[in-house]
Design brief:
By secondary structure, the chain is α/β, with parallel strands linked by helices. It has a single domain, classed as Undecaprenyl pyrophosphate synthetase. About 45% of the residues lie in helices and about 15% in strands. The protein has 7 helices and 5 strands; from the N terminus they run ααβαβαβααββα. Strands 1-3-2 form a 3-stranded parallel sheet, sandwiched between helices. Strands 4-5 form a two-stranded parallel sheet. Helix 2 packs parallel to helix 3 and helix 3 runs parallel beside helix 4. The structure holds 3-methylbut-3-enyl trihydrogen diphosphate and magnesium ion (MG). The site of 3-methylbut-3-enyl trihydrogen diphosphate has 11 residues, from helix 1.
Length: about 230
């Protein structure tokens, strides 16, 4: 979800105004994704590198996550949405950590739609934490035999989630920026020239049509091409 700051700047508003509008775009997108039959949506909301931003902006982003969960949790629950938050839990302020735990706990039985919020998330950090946990399990004798992709994945924050088919980055930047590096190995990537606060259902529909134009081979060859 990129481009909040530029959206605000273009209007002579503080960056925080862009983040506030970004939350509205998130609400819109969750609803649109559900309408379009998507079952898994993961949004990159705050990265482990975003701590480099001014403290006031970091506080705004934390406050917005808190307000979003507080305001939308009962609605999400009712709508059958299972909420997960991936990223490093350690280092989050205790009130946010508790709220996130609650959102996960209270929606754990839902399965209609899976909303995953990557917050204090960085793929390298996730892979390192998973490696540490995997190594501990091996040392404890809980894991024996060959090390496998599937075995390792059990230690990632996304252990219960399918790999993404499509990764969309808004705002015209052509970077992955440490998002789902392991999981997106074969994802289709789409870079769209829309600032996140402007993102709407028609942008999502067009992203999905572009996804369907792609040919996914997963390293193999097109049947009939040989
Ligand atoms: C995305 O918008 C929000 C977060 C990364 C938290 P930005 O704040 O990165 O907006 P730009 O890139 O400055 O326009
Ligand atoms: Mg940005």
């Amino acid at each position: 979800m990129d481009g909040n700051g530029r959206w605000a700047k273009a209007r002579g508003l503080p960056r925080t105004a862009g983040h506030e509008r970004g939350v509205e775009a998130l609400r819109r997108t969750v609803e649109a994704a559900g309408d379009l039959g998507i079952r898994y949506l993961t949004v990159f909301s705050f990265s482990t590198e975003n701590w480099r931003r001014p403290a006031a902006e970091v506080n705004t982003l934390f406050g917005l996550l808190k307000a979003y969960v507080q305001r939308d949790l009962s609605r999400l629950k009712q709508d059958g949405v299972r909420v997960r938050v991936i990223g490093q839990r350690e280092g989050l302020p205790p009130d946010i950590a508790e709220l996130v735990d609650r959102a996960e706990r209270e929606t754990a039985a839902n399965s209609k739609f899976h909303l995953t919020i990557a917050f204090n998330y960085g793929a390298r950090n996730e892979i390192l934490r998973a490696t540490q946990a995997y190594a501990r399990a091996i040392a404890a004798g809980e894991v024996t035999g060959e090390l496998t992709d599937a075995g390792f994945e059990q230690y990632l924050d996304t252990k219960d989630l399918p790999d993404p088919d499509l990764v969309i980055r808004t705002s015209g930047e052509f970077r992955i920026s440490n998002f789902l590096l392991w999981q997106a190995a074969y994802a289709e990537l789409l870079f769209v020239d829309v600032l996140w606060p402007d993102f709407n259902k028609s942008h999502l529909e067009s992203a999905i049509s572009r996804y369907h134009e792609r040919e996914r081979r997963f390293g193999a060859v097109t049947p009939g091409a040989t």
